[in-house]
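SEVERITY: medium
COMPONENT: batch folding queue
REPORTER: lab tech (J.R.)

DESCRIPTION
The queue accepted two submissions in a row. Attaching both inputs and their returned structure tokens so the on-call engineer can compare them side by side.

ATTACHMENT 1
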Amino acid sequence: MGQIALEGMEFFAFHGFYDEEQKIGNKYGVDLYLQIDLQDAAASDNLDQTVNYEVLYKLVLHEMSQPARLLEHLGHRIIEGVYREFPFVEQVKVSVSKFNPPLGGICHKAKVTLEKNKEWYQL
């Protein structure tokens, strides 16, 4: 078993519970971790036996471009997209952060982390 991670992805997007947030936009961060058997890819040096990072990034970019009210919903959509594209992944963990959330005080970021295994998606 091994892990593939894309850390520190940043996007400007139009998410938020309040309508105003969806109009003015904000900066968001995403960290994505996949648990996967990497032995075949390691032995063969064949991209078809692992996760293509570029495809993974584009999947996250697509979900971040679709407005959502909740960070939880964004994380859920990203996880579903990973399992649709790469059904051989064993587990997905995603953290979605909103920088400088409108809380009425100083807060660098609000962050939600979700984690799902392959069995969850197959239900």
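ATTACHMENT 2
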Amino acid sequence: MIALPNECYYQIFNHLRCRDDYYRDLFSCILVNRHWCRVFIPLLWSEPEQHLKDIRLIRTSLLTLNTEEQALLIPFKNILPNGPKPLFEYTSYITSINNYLYDGIGNWILNEKYRIKCELKNAIKCSLVAMFLRTSKNLKYLCIDEVICNRIIFENFCENTMLLL
């Protein structure tokens, strides 16, 4: 079997972007074999757009937090999901984060049935924004709906010079 260069895969699947089932098609491709998985995970995670509302994406992102980012959530006791670290550093592929992230955080809080809503939502926002700034080396666009700045976010923001606000 002759393998195609990765550039060929990118060209083929960039043509699928106009399809309504684009994300479903990419997800199916990552299940074909390991090579396809390594090729298509970056495409699948590069522009999550409306998928930021999905509680599974929020859960996966929370599993990616480092110790310093997790520390912001300590006052809320046991809110971090249990599970192994993700196989890939999915968030490193993200290029834009829009307001849907905040909807996704709200959906996750409702799904987990937490009582503390506003304070918890803000703490999760701070943790996730700090993590995205730390891990997303290709991040070009970040929408922050309110001032949620702290030392961790500021330090990571200063290191990510490619970002447009």
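NOTES FROM REPORTER
The radius of gyration is 17 Å.
No errors were logged for either attachment.
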